[in-house]
Design a protein that fits this description.
elongated, single chain, transmembrane, membrane, mainly alpha, 9 helices, DUF4386 domain-containing protein
Length: about 230
């Protein structure tokens, strides 16, 4: 009697372990948050020798010349831009995989970081003009350079867009479980703090809660538990 030949079973038929999605983008966000938060405050201290001349543009500009302030600020903004751009793309992809189809959360979260990138790009971009004008301060009108320095010292601090990002993440976490509950609550608190800075003439202070959120978000999304399965 003919016996059909059955296909051989693999020796090890155990189910494959789930593959953890790469989260290097999240850690890149943490680096960007630290560079932005610490670096922008650090470069601001380089203006200390000139602060006593705030009422005299000529002396103020002369005191800043040769301090390295502009170059240091430019390096900080460039590094932060690269890191936050990667983080924004990764965050959008991550939330897109967790949120229901058609959800606005991924796009809003990425847009908030994008707004910060615009501020950093403009704030750091003025360094091209300031670097050469401060290097030859005697050839330039100090009354023209001083206002540029004011803009330079403000734009990169405007991290209000992170309030939109944190708010979107909070909604996604609390309504759809796209992030862990503790992180959703933390994001909601940060969103309120950032909103408070935008409702008063201290918008640049948004760098503090915004930078802290990016640092925590990167660590939480890189090492935290999966919102659906609880796997670490």
């Amino acid at each position: 009697m003919y016996s059909p030949t059955l296909p051989e079973q693999p020796a090890d038929s155990r189910p494959l372990a789930p593959v953890r999605q790469p989260r290097a983008w999240a850690l890149t966000g943490t680096v960007g948050g630290l560079v932005g938060l610490v670096g922008i405050f650090a470069t601001a201290t380089l203006t200390a020798p000139a602060e006593q001349f705030r009422g005299d543009n000529a002396q103020y500009v002369a005191a800043l010349a040769g301090t390295g302030y502009v170059w240091a600020h430019q390096v900080v903004t460039v590094v932060a831009i690269v890191c936050l751009a990667i983080f924004a793309a990764g965050l959008r992809r991550y939330l897109g995989a967790q949120e229901p189809a058609g959800s606005l959360v991924p796009m809003l979260a990425a847009t908030g970081v994008g707004l910060v990138l615009v501020g950093l790009l403009i704030g750091g971009g003025i360094s091209t003009e300031l670097f050469f004008s401060l290097g030859s301060a005697e050839e330039y009108d100090p009354d023209v350079i001083a206002p540029q320095l004011t803009i330079f010292a403000t734009m990169a601090w405007l991290w209000g867009g992170i309030g939109l990002t944190a708010g979107a993440v909070a909604v996604g976490g609390l309504r759809h479980g796209s992030v862990s509950r503790w992180f959703a609550v933390f994001s909601a608190v940060i969103a309120l703090l950032v909103a408070a800075t935008q409702l008063a003439p201290v918008q640049y202070i948004a760098l503090v809660p915004g930078g802290i959120w990016v640092v925590v978000a990167g660590l939480a999304l890189a090492f935290g538990q999966h919102p659906q399965t609880g796997r670490s």
